[in-house]
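Deliverable D2.4 — example input (structure tokens):
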């Protein structure tokens, strides 16, 4: 919630508001009570807290995959790492990013064109197995009721 109170030249605004720690793809400014924002000198800032990452690796070079949907998520509490080494986490060496390599996502399979938007092949496969199981159960029940 952002507000501004006071006459021109003696305006006061709200203090910074901490947002919940969740990923934000975009932020939206919305005026209430029919207020128009056109022509107003509006200034907004969003500051995100830095994220520290500890990467446990050997002496050889490694490739870090960030932001890729195919990468499995894995994380440990910092206490687990702190219990395995005598070095404080703050004293660990800093990694350097020497190159950034972007790879385009793999194209969807051809059968995905037949699926509704937002569904994947695993979901459709599970529904098909469920439907076949219900049909088989219905067939067995019908066969038992016939005699």
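Example output (designed residues):
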């Amino acid at each position: 919630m952002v507000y501004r109170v006071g006459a021109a030249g003696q305006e006061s605004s709200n203090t910074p508001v901490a947002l919940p720690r969740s990923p934000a793809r975009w932020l939206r400014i919305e005026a209430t009570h029919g207020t128009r924002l056109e022509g107003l000198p509006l200034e907004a800032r969003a500051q995100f807290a830095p994220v520290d990452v500890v990467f446990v690796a050997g002496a050889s070079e490694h490739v870090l995959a960030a932001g890729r949907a195919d990468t499995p998520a894995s994380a440990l509490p910092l206490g687990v790492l702190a219990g395995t080494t005598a070095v404080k986490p703050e004293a660990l060496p800093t990694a350097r990013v020497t190159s950034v390599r972007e790879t385009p996502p793999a194209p969807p399979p051809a059968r995905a064109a037949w699926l509704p938007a937002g569904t994947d092949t695993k979901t459709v496969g599970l529904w098909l197995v469920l439907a076949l199981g219900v049909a088989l159960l219905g067939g067995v029940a019908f066969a038992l009721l016939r005699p």
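The chain is about 20% helix and 5% strand.
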